[in-house]
Structure formats: structure tokens, C-alpha cells
Amino acid sequence: MNRFLLGVRQALSGLVHAARRERNFQIEMALGLVALAMAWWLRISFVEWLAVVICCGLVLSAELLNTAIEHLADTTGPGRSEQIRVVKDVAAGAVLVAAVVSLAVGAAVFLPYLAAMARS
Fold this sequence. Notes:
89% of the residues lie in helices and 0% in strands. By secondary structure, the protein is an all-alpha fold. α1 (2-21) crosses α2 (23-42), α2 (23-42) packs antiparallel against α3 (46-74) and α2 (23-42) packs parallel to α4. The radius of gyration is 18 Å and the shape is globular.
């Protein structure tokens, strides 16, 4: 059990590091909180809540992995190789895919509620 708790502690340390020092992670956390606040305000369905929460988690997880890859790649030294550039670009691309999919899901969930409010 001590190893498990140590692992949880280290994972939380990584989350705190990202929340304090990684600008993109901070922006994505803020946007996720806006999405969750809108979900609460609009009283979306349970299934829609699941979709919004999963998308928020997907984007934040992708950003954490991207950050980890970037930090690891930066340890290779000041002169970056073409391979390292490609690795970092692909990791950033994964975040972009997660964000675009999440934006599409958010639009599908929230726009009908907002349109109904505008009509009434």
C-alpha cells in the first residue's frame, strides 16, 4: 500500500507542477471549468455530462502527456534533432485533436440548449 500511496503522491505532484507552471494546461483547465459551469447552468442530461467530463479529461490528459514528452525531449541537449522536433510536434498534434473533438462535442451539447434559450 505504501508504494501505491507514493505513486498517488507523485502523480499529484505532477498535476500541481502542470497547474502552476504550464500555461497551456492552465488555459485548458480554465476552459474545462467554463464548460462544467455551463453544463451545470444549462442543466444538461446525465449522458451529456458524461461527454463533457470525458472530453475535459481527454484534453487535460493529452496536455499532461505532451508536457511530459516535451520535458523529456528537452533533456537531449540544446541542439535539437529533426527526430525530437517531430516527436514534440506529434505530441502537440494529439492535444490539438483532443481539443478539436472536445470543441465539436461541446458545440453538439451546448448549442441546442443555448438556441432554445434564445427562442424563449
